[in-house]
Amino acid sequence: MSDKKFKYKSAFDIIGPIMVGPSSSHTAGAVRIGNVARELYKHTPKKLIVTFFGSFAETYKGHGTAVAIVAGVLGFETHDERIPDAIEIAEKQGVSIEFLVSTKETEHANTVNLELIDEQEKLNLTAISIGGGSIQLTEINHYSTLLNHDQGNGLVFTADKESALPCVEMALENPAFVEVQQLNQETVFFVETVSDISQKLVKKIREIPGITAVMPTTG
Amino acid sequence: MFESIEELVQRAKDNQCTISEIMIRQEIETSGRSRTEIMNQMTLNLETMEAAAAKGVQGVRSHSGLTGYDAKKLQAYLDKKTVLTDDTFVKALCYAVATNEVNAAMGMICATPTAGSAGVVPGVLLAFREKFRSTREEMLNFLFTAAAFGFVTANNAMISGAEGGCQAEIGSASGMAAAALVEMAGGTPEQASHAFAIALNNLIGLACDPVAGLVEIPCIKRNAGGTSNAISAAEMALAGIESEIPADEVVETMYRVGRSMPADIRETGIGGLAGTKTGKRIAKELFGIDR
Asked: What residues of chain A lie within 8 A of the CB of B210, using their CB?
């Protein structure tokens, strides 16, 4: 199966997600990009810098993209009715937020870069919103990758390469693509799968010793 | 997974089943989940659609204040029993507008295939459900048929206005709704495929030109436009009319046209209706954007 051809893998990528409007690429997709950052960073940052490119840069105000990104970083889901108030909620939690726009040409019209910063940790993430709420991650801390991050895809972080990889492969019955990179002190496993990853499976992977972060799925 | 509409229709013929059944079987296979789990998830989507339409008909206003209460006007117009066409048609417009008004008000909706085009499929479904007295199962099947056509479109072209213009959003939604309506009315998989192609043919090259970058003007009314287009395409297909250009070639056309559209009319809020004197004035008043 030429699985790389399928940007969308499920009926629910087309009918869904259930979300707070007004735009699946600019709002729901943006929430999910924020969710990825949340999952990797694991806590609320002190400082958040968001840079919008392309169509995001032109229309992020009207589409609620700014509130959506912040909502995602706070860990809200696409249908959370607090999304419109996310910036206020974040500021109350002591997050300083900066929104920038860039005129730099990007491959995809809806590109955003997030920087999450505090005393201990820094995360730099670039992602694109490809439509209908589906997103792809293009860069993590300047390592480039191209993962479909929607239903049926996973991204796994671990500190223990030797023991974790076989576990991951076992857990994900049908990996389409596995890539391993070194990032700071951690070994990162990028695992893309053809089939859906259930919440149950995510929980099972989280329980594997050495795994420190697993991407949320939308199933 | 099926890669083309031709393949989708062929599978339905080979298995002597509907297109919705092919989509459901593929979902079971690729997700590893049971039919019940999949049906339950689609039921949640359907319930979200019903709730959004009901809320919109009551009347909502967007955050910007630019749009709202048009679905309520359509309902009042229907109540007076003086419509030009028929109740089902006007109800479809009403539910489509209602859904997209809720979307513009940052309310909860189900993206179908996107948020900007979320009104078309529910608009058609909820209006014709009343006419056909459809069961819940038939309504879920409608959504799976729509999903099957959207799935091919999304994988072979695009479903975002930023990538391909409004043809990718309202166009895709219109094609999806037309095909699903044909199946609901008892048409064949081929007729569904022609309805999809006819609906999309009519919207090739449609600009995505939101005024002030907001999913309001012209998006909300375009959901009604896409809805009426879907119904007329379904009527033609059920009458035995075919799209001379096969559905897959129409999808490919949408891709090519989308790639060649200038950025101004791909959701940047610069060109098209957004670039009119009034469009610019609204952008300046709301966000201080001056072009």
From this structure: 59, 62
DSSP SS3 for B205: coil
Q: What pTM, to 2 d.p., does this model score? A: 0.85
Residues of A in contact with B104 (CB under 8 A): 21-22
HSE value, Cβ hemisphere, 13 Å, CA-based, for A126? 17
Alpha carbon of A32: minimum distance to chain B alpha carbons (Å) = 14
Q: What is the ipTM of this complex?
A: 0.96
DSSP H or E run through A119: none
Cβ pair B147:A15 closer than 8 A: yes
Closest listed residue to residue B141, CA positions, set B112, B183, B170, B175: B183
Pairing of strands A96-101, A47-53: parallel
Q: Quick: pLDDT tens for B33-57.
A: 999 999 999 999 999 999 999 999 9
Give, in degrees to the nearest 5, the angle at Cα B28 between B27 and B33. Answer: 115
A135, β-bridge pairs: A129, A149
Angstrom distance (rounded) from CA B291 to CA B287: 12
- Measured CA to CA, the distance from residue B285 to residue A33 in angstroms comes to 30
User: Cα B120 vs. chain centroid, distance in angstroms?
Assistant: 4
CB distance B42–A21 less than 8 Å? no
User: Per residue in B115-166, pLDDT tens?
Assistant: 999 999 999 999 999 999 999 999 999 999 999 999 999 999 999 998 999 9
Nearest residue of chain B to residue A80 (CA atoms):
B108
Cβ contact B30–A196 (<8 Å): yes
